[in-house]
Amino acid sequence: MRGFVRYMKMLPKMWRSPVSREVVRAISPRPGEHVVDVGAGMGPATVLAAKSGASVLAVDPTRYMRRILAVRRLGQRARSAIHVAEGSAELIPADDQSIDAVWTVNTMHHWTDLDAAILELVRVLRPGGRLLLVDEDFDAPAHPAFAHMQERRGHRDRHFTEIDPAVVEAKLIAAGFASVEGSNGSMADRPAKVVRATR
Ligand SMILES: C[S@@+](CC[C@H](N)C(=O)[O-])C[C@H]1O[C@@H](n2cnc3c(N)ncnc32)[C@H](O)[C@@H]1O
């Protein structure tokens, strides 16, 4: 029961978040562009991006997340711009060089194969395409959710991958990305691992 109550309290954060808002602002999708939200979850970034007039491919491997986003999509004025699809960072359902921008929020710690994910990012982005990878750093005491996330430490240690932005940066450079910058920085005033790049 406690778990259920805790989950219900977390739902609004999965539905919308200041970090997703900031990521969409930074990516600034334009009308007519094709963009991908990798690990879209319940779609906090997807629904904002769709308002721009871009076509948004919301990719997620979890059927539950896709179902919730598919229902949420129906309530959006820009619903025809939102396409929910099964996929992952390691398998993005998009044609080669067909995408103008890709972002991900709070999914990198779930990635099972960083090298495969980078190959997919190189493959789907067109030359000049924008990339923004963000994982909030819940281990930083300055993060507002630090105390809550410390309680879940055991679960996270068992199931999450540690992300080093410098390693992601090096791999993106090796894969041919330009102006790559990985840092332990912040997003929407929250400590975050942030990697920006241009294809
Ligand atoms: C913490 S949620 C974040 C969802 C959303 N981006 C947000 O900001 O609310 C993590 C999401 O990553 C998805 N995920 C799990 N493994 C993944 C993978 N290998 N590639 C991409 N997404 C993955 C999960 O299904 C889940 O929806």
Question: Would you write up a description of this structure?
Answer:
The protein has 199 residues and is of the alpha/beta class. It has a single domain (2-198), classed as Vaccinia Virus protein VP39 (Rossmann fold). The protein is built from 8 helices and 7 strands. It has a 7-stranded mixed β-sheet, with helices on both faces. The termini are far apart. The model has no long low-confidence stretch (mean pLDDT 92). It binds S-adenosylmethionine. S-adenosylmethionine is lined by residues 14, 17, 20, 38-42, 44, 60-62, 65, 88-90, 105-107, 110-112.
Question: Quick gist of this model?
Answer:
With 199 residues, the chain is an alpha/beta fold.
Percent of residues in β-strands: 25-35%
Morphology = globular
Fourth-level CATH superfamily: Vaccinia Virus protein VP39
Average pLDDT for all residues:
92
Strand order, largest beta sheet: 3-2-1-4-5-7-6
SS content category: alpha/beta
The overall number of domains is: 1
Number of strands: 7
Radius of gyration: 16 Å
Helical content band: 25-40%
CATH top level assignment: Alpha Beta
Ligand kinds:
S-adenosylmethionine
CATH-defined architecture? 3-Layer(aba) Sandwich
- CATH topology grouping: Rossmann fold
Secondary-structure element pattern, one letter each: HHEHEHEEHEHHHEE
- Termini, distance in Å? 47 Å
Q: For the report, how would you describe the main beta sheet?
A: 7 strands, mixed
Put simply, the count of helices is: 8
